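Module 6 notes. Inverse folding takes a fixed backbone as the condition and produces residue identities as the prediction. Think of it as a translation problem where the source language is geometry and the target language is the twenty amino acids. Below is one complete input and output pair. Work through it position by position during the lab.
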């Protein structure tokens, strides 16, 4: 019997050495989780109807090799597709349709621009639509779309302007100076964009047509009287509706005594069919813009693109007239030219943002992570990966930082959680245990020899 007990001890010590050696071997394995050998005593012929007072144990057995899912250090790598999970969860991978899970986030792109592991398993997540909205619900293979970002024609310009209430007036009509009764009024300084004495201030704004061509819309503001201003609008120095003309679109703005807008109006006469210039709720709308460019002869003509079919809106809701410098305090417009992918970033919620050469950015997908009710029940399949089992329960998959799920750290990898010092101590302990159990067998052998010699 003592031989069996000693043998069971040798077996247990050998398994402890195996587990410790495996931990030490994987001390530098990304995302590796250390294991611990757990043992239980063995009693043969246990009396179910009572307690045996004189029972002697029958040795030891390996009860379990439990994985330790404590957090590993997150180390910076500088590679945007390197991802570590800070907290609970696993990356979800597709292995030819079957799912496996990992904490090792060293990813790259394959020839089809899918995000994959070094051996080709595809990272799973949520796709984004053309506007950058994440489509939650269905997992899919994450892909880095490297195609050009299509241009967008300008639909809205929003700006905050203050028009100096104390600026000198440039009346549209003045007395002819002949002291007539009643006075005879004549035009005063007809607007000329090249003559700064015919307007008070101008503000240029970049706008874009349907092909992504950049144009300059310039607005010229002229104070024509007390609390009265006239606005002239040109695109590339031409009439927006007729590139052959330099006649601007004209609008007027009246202010209250407190500097707020009283009313706005737009001159909608003399425009080509289908074109209009109007104002509603302090928003000017220019419909029928004809984007233009100079031809080979130097003449202005339509460039083949179009403006937004619904028109280009100019919001003047933030316009004021206070006794301070005429200036534009804020400006934004929603059009842009064609963009080429220039960089990629991933935030802590796993959202992948693509930045383009036209200063635009949008989400192109989101990494999903999974959690399990019993992580100890996961089955290791090699490659620092696990599969679900009946014991682990089904995975709960969602976006990072949802509920108890951890966050994603881009440009970083999670190191092994092996404590090398502790493992070396365990190695010494396992060696001592092995030697002690071997001594048990040696002693039993000596006793047997003594008994044999007595016969």
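Target side of the pair, the amino acids:
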């Amino acid at each position: 019997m003592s031989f069996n007990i000693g043998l069971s001890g040798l077996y247990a010590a050998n398994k402890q050495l195996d587990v410790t050696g495996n931990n030490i071997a994987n001390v530098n394995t990304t995302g590796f989780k250390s294991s611990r050998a757990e043992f239980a005593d063995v009693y043969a012929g246990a009396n179910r109807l009572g307690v045996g007072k004189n029972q002697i144990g029958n040795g030891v057995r390996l009860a379990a090799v439990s994985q330790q899912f404590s957090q590993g250090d997150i180390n910076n790598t500088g590679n945007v597709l390197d991802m570590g999970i800070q907290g609970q969860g696993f990356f979800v991978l597709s292995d030819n349709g079957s799912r496996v899970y990992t904490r090792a986030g060293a990813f790259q792109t394959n020839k089809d621009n899918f995000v994959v592991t070094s051996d080709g398993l595809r990272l799973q997540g949520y796709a984004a639509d053309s506007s950058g909205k994440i489509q939650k619900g269905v997992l899919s293979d994450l892909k880095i779309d490297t195609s050009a970002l299509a241009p967008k024609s300008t639909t809205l310009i929003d700006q905050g302007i203050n028009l100096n209430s104390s600026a000198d007036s440039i009346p549209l009509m003045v007395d002819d100076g002949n002291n007539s009764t009643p006075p005879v009024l004549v035009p005063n300084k007809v607007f000329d964009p090249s003559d700064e004495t015919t307007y008070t201030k101008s503000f240029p704004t970049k706008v874009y047509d349907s092909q992504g061509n950049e144009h300059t819309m310039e607005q010229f503001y002229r104070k024509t009287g007390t609390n009265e201003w006239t606005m002239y609008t040109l695109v590339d120095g031409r009439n927006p509706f007729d590139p052959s003309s330099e006649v601007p679109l004209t609008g007027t703005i009246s202010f209250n005594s407190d500097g707020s807008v009283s009313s706005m109006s737009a001159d909608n006469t003399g425009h080509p069919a289908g074109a209009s210039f109007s104002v509603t709720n302090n928003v000017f709308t220019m419909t029928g813009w004809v984007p233009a460019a100079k031809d080979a002869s130097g003449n202005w003509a339509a460039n083949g693109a179009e403006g937004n079919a619904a028109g280009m809106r100019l919001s003047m809701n933030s316009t004021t007239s206070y006794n301070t410098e005429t200036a534009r305090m804020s400006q934004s417009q929603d059009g842009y030219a064609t963009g080429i992918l220039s960089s990629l970033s991933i935030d802590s919620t796993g959202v992948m943002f693509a930045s383009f050469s036209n200063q635009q950015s949008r989400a192109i997908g989101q990494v999903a992570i999974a959690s399990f009710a019993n992580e100890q029940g996961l089955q290791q399949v090699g490659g620092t990966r696990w599969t679900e089992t009946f014991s682990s329960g089904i995975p709960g998959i969602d976006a990072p930082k949802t509920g108890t799920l951890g966050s994603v750290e881009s440009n970083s990898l999670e190191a092994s959680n092996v404590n090398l010092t502790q493992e070396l101590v365990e190695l010494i302990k396992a060696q001592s245990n092995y030697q002690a159990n071997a001594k048990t067998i040696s002693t039993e052998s000596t006793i047997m020899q003594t008994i044999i010699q007595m016969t």
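Reference fact for the lab report: The first helix runs from residue 2 to 25.
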